[in-house]
Structure formats: structure tokens, C-alpha cells
């Protein structure tokens, strides 16, 4: 005999008020089932499909009771293959459930393509009155990074060289044309040298000692710091100016064509000029960050921009200290005086006769 499971609320004699009370009781029980001391972490990104070099914002949210002291990671965060470009931790806010909610924003960038993944982030925390630390992890997030080069361009074959062009006319005609052009250029140069006027500035030239390159660079960096580029949100212009100041400093200090060289070329040139490895790494790091802003459309926060400017100051100051330390020591004048023969001695007379002869 099969049991009959068909029944209605009328048979249970439950009215609408009793049913509503039952539902509220179930909801309260489910809320109370969650431990008030539980710490939860979640993560989300601004976009899950980006181009190589773009900046992705990772938002980490931590929910915890007031008895918990979280230790949100900062610059020491490791999210390879993604690189940290800046971060910001917002003040905690109280939730309707009586818990605290803390958010941290991380600006990330990546220079690899394909289906990548932001790894899970471990967040340590401690409880008031309890020794030791605990950790909670955020979930990993998948991101698709695309290349700026299309598949058609990447798969394009290398074309053969073009065939040589045929010169129209006789070769003797072109030889005569070249000789005529060379003769005309020689005549024009002779006339220019013969009748050119000497500039007035050349006749009244005054020798003025040029300022050292480090003083010029430090003055330009101070003007850049006092400018309003960051207030106006012109982050790219700010980094372009800082990079040009340092490159001009390299040109004046080491006589290299830094304004026309890439960052790698400048790094190799500086390694031959200075044995200070830490200073060379500082120069390379500063120029690389400027290149990311100029070419990879990276937009660092204001604190990161100011830190890049301080790196430029440090490049010039350390180069100045290195230049001063390499100056030859002054000779001891007293020792030189003692080395001369006394006046009136035979050695002094012989030295005087040699100078007169």
C-alpha cells in the first residue's frame, strides 16, 4: 500500500499569520546559523578582457567582526604574472548585519597574452585577545589578455625583395648629371665662404661658464614638481617631462645621445660609464616606468607619480656624489715646498741656470 503524500495547509490547520511567522523563524535561524566571528573575503576585477599592457583594477573585499584586526597586503603583494602598479586601502564601513567591510583596490598590469589567472590572495588577520594569526583567501579570477597585433599580421609571411629598377637612358648621361651637380655645389660653397658675413654675436662673444648638468637637471625637476600637471590629471605629460630631463642630464654628464636612444641602449651605455650597479638599476627602473606611462597607457595614482619624480631626483643626486668622489685629490703644497732646494744653495743656482738657458 503506497502512502498518500498529498496534503494541504487546510488539513494542518495553519493560517496565513502562522505561515508568515514560520517563514520568519526559518529566516532568523538561517541568519543565526552563520557564525558572527566568521571572516569572508571576495574579489572582483574592473574587466575580464583586456589588451596587453592595460591596467586592471582588482578590488578585494573583506567582511569581519569588530574583534578581528585584518592585515591587508600592500606593495609586497605577489600576483605573478601580473605586476602591481599602485594600491589603495579604503576605510572600513559597517554593514547592516553589524560587521565591518574593508575594501582594497590594486592596479595591475600584465605583459603576457592568453588566458591568464589572478591567483588567490591570502589575507592574514588576528583576533583581539587571541594569540597567533589566521588567514583567509580570495578566489582566483580568470582574465583574457589579447595582443595588440592581429592574427593576420602575426601570420603574415616575409615577402621576397623587389627586383632592381631599370634606369632610363644612357649611363653616360647620368654620370654627366652627377658631375654637373657636384660642380654647382662646389661653386655655391665657394661663393658662400667668400661673401658670407660674420655674425655679430661671433665678434662679441663672451665666454660664460656653463652650469653643471646636475644643477640644470635638479632645477628642472624642481620646476616640474611645482607645476600643476598632476593637479590637471596630465599624468603622461608629467612623465614625458621627467624622462626628457633625465635624458638631457645623461647627455650633458656622459656625452651620450640619450634623447635619441631607447631605454635598453641608455642602460648599456651607462654600464660602461659608471660601475655603480645600484645606480644603473635605479636609472633603468625610472626610465622603464616612464615608458609604461608613455607607450603602454598606464595611469598610476598620484602617490606613484610623486615616487617616480623622487627617483629622478635620486638619479641626479647619486650621479653628483659619484662625480665628486672621482675628482683627483689636491696635492700637498707644504710637501711640494719642502721638495724645492733652499735659496742660495748650489742646487738652486744650477736650477736657475738651467731655466735661463
State the shape: elongated
Low-confidence stretches: 5-9, 200-208, 330-357
Rg (CA only): 38 Å
Strand content: 15-25%
Q: Let me know the average pLDDT.
A: 77
In angstroms, what separates the terminal alpha carbons?
A: 144 Å
- Secondary-structure element series: HHEEEEEEEEEEEHHHHHHHHHH
| Structural class category | alpha+beta
Number of strands: 11
Task: Determine the fraction of residues in helical runs and give it as a percent range.
Answer: 40-55%
Largest sheet: 5 strands, antiparallel
How many alpha or pi helices?
12
Protein described:
The chain has helices at residues 9-12, 16-33, 151-154, 171-195, 200-203, 213-226, 235-254, 263-273, 277-295, 302-325, 333-339, 346-356; strands spanning 40-45, 49-51, 55-64, 68-70, 83-89, 93-94, 100-109, 114-118, 122-127, 134-137, 141-146. It has 357 residues and is an alpha+beta fold. Among the domains are: 40-149, Sandwich (Immunoglobulin-like); 213-325. Strands 1, 3, 5, 6 and 7 form a five-stranded antiparallel β-sheet that branches. The longest helix is centred in the middle third of the chain and has 25 residues, at 171-195. It is elongated.
Question: Could you write a compact summary of the structure shown?
Answer:
The chain is α+β, with helices and mostly antiparallel strands. 45% of the residues lie in helices and 17% in strands. Among the domains are: 40-149, Immunoglobulin-like (Sandwich), CATH 2.60.40; 213-325.
Amino acid at each position: 500500500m503506497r502512502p498518500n503524500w498529498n496534503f494541504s495547509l487546510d488539513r494542518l490547520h495553519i493560517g496565513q499569520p502562522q505561515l508568515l511567522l514560520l517563514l520568519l523563524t526559518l529566516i532568523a535561524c538561517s541568519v543565526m546559523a552563520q557564525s558572527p566571528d566568521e571572516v569572508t573575503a571576495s574579489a572582483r576585477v574592473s574587466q575580464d578582457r583586456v589588451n596587453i599592457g592595460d591596467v586592471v583594477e582588482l578590488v578585494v573585499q573583506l567582511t569581519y567582526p569588530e574583534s578581528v584586526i585584518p592585515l591587508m597586503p600592500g606593495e609586497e603583494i605577489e600576483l605573478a604574472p601580473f605586476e602591481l602598479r599602485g594600491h589603495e586601502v579604503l576605510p572600513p564601513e559597517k554593514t547592516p548585519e553589524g560587521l565591518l567591510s574593508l575594501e582594497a583596490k590594486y592596479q595591475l598590469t600584465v605583459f603576457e597574452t592568453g588566458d591568464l589567472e589572478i591567483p588567490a590572495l591570502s589575507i592574514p588577520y588576528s583576533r583581539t585577545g587571541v594569540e597567533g594569526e589566521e588567514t583567509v583567501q580570495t578566489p582566483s579570477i580568470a582574465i583574457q589578455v589579447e595582443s595588440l597585433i592581429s592574427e593576420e599580421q602575426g601570420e603574415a609571411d616575409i615577402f621576397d625583395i623587389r627586383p632592381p629598377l631599370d634606369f632610363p637612358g644612357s649611363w653616360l648621361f647620368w654620370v654627366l648629371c652627377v658631375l654637373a651637380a657636384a660642380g654647382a655645389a662646389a661653386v655655391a660653397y665657394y661663393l658662400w665662404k667668400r661673401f658670407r658675413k660674420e655674425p655679430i654675436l661671433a665678434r662679441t662673444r663672451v665666454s660664460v661658464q656653463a652650469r653643471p648638468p646636475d644643477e640644470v637637471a635638479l632645477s628642472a625637476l624642481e620646476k616640474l614638481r611645482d607645476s600643476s600637471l598632476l593637479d590637471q590629471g596630465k599624468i603622461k605629460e608629467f612623465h614625458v617631462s621627467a624622462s626628457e630631463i633625465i635624458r638631457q642630464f645623461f647627455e650633458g654628464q656622459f656625452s651620450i645621445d640619450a634623447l635619441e636612444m631607447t631605454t635598453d641602449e641608455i642602460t648599456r651605455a651607462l654600464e660602461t660609464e659608471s660601475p655603480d650597479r645600484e645606480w644603473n638599476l635605479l636609472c633603468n627602473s625610472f626610465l622603464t616606468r616612464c615608458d609604461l606611462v608613455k607607450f603602454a597607457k598606464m595611469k598610476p595614482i598620484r602617490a606613484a607619480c610623486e615616487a617616480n619624480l623622487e627617483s629622478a631626483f635620486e638619479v641626479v643626486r647619486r650621479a653628483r656624489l659619484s662625480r665628486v668622489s672621482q675628482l683627483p685629490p689636491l696635492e700637498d703644497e707644504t710637501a711640494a715646498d719642502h721638495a724645492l732646494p733652499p735659496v742660495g744653495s748650489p742646487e738652486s743656482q744650477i736650477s736657475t741656470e738651467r731655466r735661463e738657458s
